[in-house]
Amino acid sequence: MTKAEKARFVIKTLNELYPTIPLPLDHKDPYTLLIAVLMSAQSTDVRVNQITPLLFERADNPYAMVKLHIEDIRDIIRPVGLSPAKAKAIHGLSEILIEKHNGEVPQSFEDLEALPGVGHKTASVVMSQAFGVPAFPVDTHIHRLMYRWGLTSGKNVVQTEADAKKLFPKSLWNDLHLQIIWYGRQYSPARGWNLDKDIITATIGRKDVLEEYHKKTSR
Length: 219
Hints:
Distance between the termini: 30 Å
């Protein structure tokens, strides 16, 4: 299969599996999404969804958030990990939103990535899910699967994102990146991977990846 043929197979299969696509992080507006995505770094969406209601009960907008002490934020979000840095970033970006953006989450990559604790992936998620701007945020699942499927060299997430944007139509980016995330979690995880359940990789996977899988499972 060529990469273009692989891409078409991925799109067809994912649309069949996920005709409707749930959002991984619970939120009610761009601000709560921004905070949830920031909190999800090196954590799980499940854990973040358990903690954000506790934080948003105290502060679900930048004006309320800046009234909390950083230590208070840190104590609430401690279970998601990296709480000192995340609490400082949450408080700091809330101050900037008030000072520079009238308390609103900006709708540009440049302004988002200028906020404390907000990198390109976080900005991409917000632009995609909050504002409907075409983006292709690459998390560990997408990075892993794009490599397994032979659609990227897998050297780094920057290259993976660039390759994905070349292969898949821009109109599909916002849905497709979420579909790949759900597929990775359910059918092609890093651990406990069962190729019998992973129809996409079994059909279009890299030869070396499939050979390595069979070596490990035959021991």
